[in-house]
Each structure stands twice: as C-alpha cells, then as structure tokens.
Amino acid sequence: MKTIDKKDRTYSAVERILDNYLEMNNHRKTPERYAILRAVYDMEGHFTIDELNAKLSEKDKFPVSRATLYNTLNLFLELRLVIRHRFQGTTKYEAYSASSNHCHQICTVCGKVTEVSAPEVTEAIESMHLKRFRKDGFTLYIYGICSICQGALTRKSKKNMK
User: Fold this and answer.
1) 3-state secondary structure 51-116
2) pLDDT per position as a tens digit, 33-76
3) Most-buried pick from 94, 126, 130, 160 (CB within 10 A)?
4) pTM of the prediction?
C-alpha cells in the first residue's frame, strides 16, 4: 500500500483549486501552469521569480518564459495559492499553506529574511474582532539588524575609532 505524504496531499488540493478555476472560466489547462504550480510547492520557503525560473529550467528541465511566470504567479495570487512579499526592494513569493499566518524578521543591512514563531502575536490577531471583515491570515514584518551584521558594524566602528 502506497502512503501519501503531506506534500503530495497539499499539491493535490491546490491542483484541484487550479483545475476548478480553469474549468469554470473556460481557460486552458496548460502543462506550463501545472509545472509552475508543482515547482512553487516544491520550493522551500521564500523565492524570487529568478529562483523559480532556475528551478524550472535547470532542475525540472521545463523552461518557461518570464511572461508566463509572471502571468501564472498573478493567477496563483488571485487564487490564493501563492503569497507575495515585498522585502526591501525585492519581491519574493511563497506557496500558500494553512499555516500562512507568520512573522518575518528582516535585516535592513544584508536583507536576510527569517520566519519567526510568535504565538502571542498569532493569538492576539486571531482574537481580534473586526467589524464587517473576515480575517483570512496575516503577515508581520519586523525590521532590524541581524547579529552577523551587528557584529560586523561593531567591529568596523571599533576599527574606525583607532
């Protein structure tokens, strides 16, 4: 008996969402759309369009044009299959998941983005009562300086003082 892992179940669910949308709107079910969907859900964490393009071209041997990537990601954004983040002049994407409520810490020096667990923030937002508004999820961005950059800045400052 073959076991189906969580990743396969997730992909099957998002593929059904895409299938239903394409059928209801009389759009074609192109191999490109499904290859991009599979690649998005195979990516770990946040990715740029260039990283997605590299995965499709090099690893999956399924090159697509940048226009196809942008158009398909925009469709996935509409369907809430993908989340777009704008981090300090860089646009990154990630596959949507049921646990897409999350917090990011972003280093303003090197640009490193790290997801952090903040159960208190999640609990506070989930308990908020908003008028005439249904919450679907949230993302919080915390800007600062990571320890590596802080150390480098401190060393540089001490060196300049000599």
Assistant:
1) HHHHHHHHHCCCCCCHHHHHHHHHHHHHCCCEEEEEECCEEEEEECCCCCCEEEEEECCCCCEEEE
2) 999 999 999 998 889 999 999 999 988 898 899 999 999 999 99
3) 94
4) 0.76
Q: Which of the pair, 99 or 133, is modelled with greater confidence?
A: 133
**Single-letter amino acid, residue 65:** S
| 129 CB-side CA count, 13 A | 0
Residue with structure tokens 């308990």? 127
Residues whose CB falls within 8 Å of the CB of residue 15, separated by 6 or more in sequence, listed in order? 34, 37
**Which H or E run includes 126?**
helix 119-127
Residue 157, pLDDT score: 84
What confidence tier does 9 reach under pLDDT thresholds 50, 70, 90?
Answer: confident
Whole-angstrom distance, CA of residue 109 vs CA of residue 156: 14
- Main-chain dihedrals φ then ψ at residue 123, nearest 5 degrees: -65, -40
Side-chain half-sphere CA neighbours of 127 within 13 A = 6
Q: For residue 10, give the H/E element and its range.
A: helix 6-24
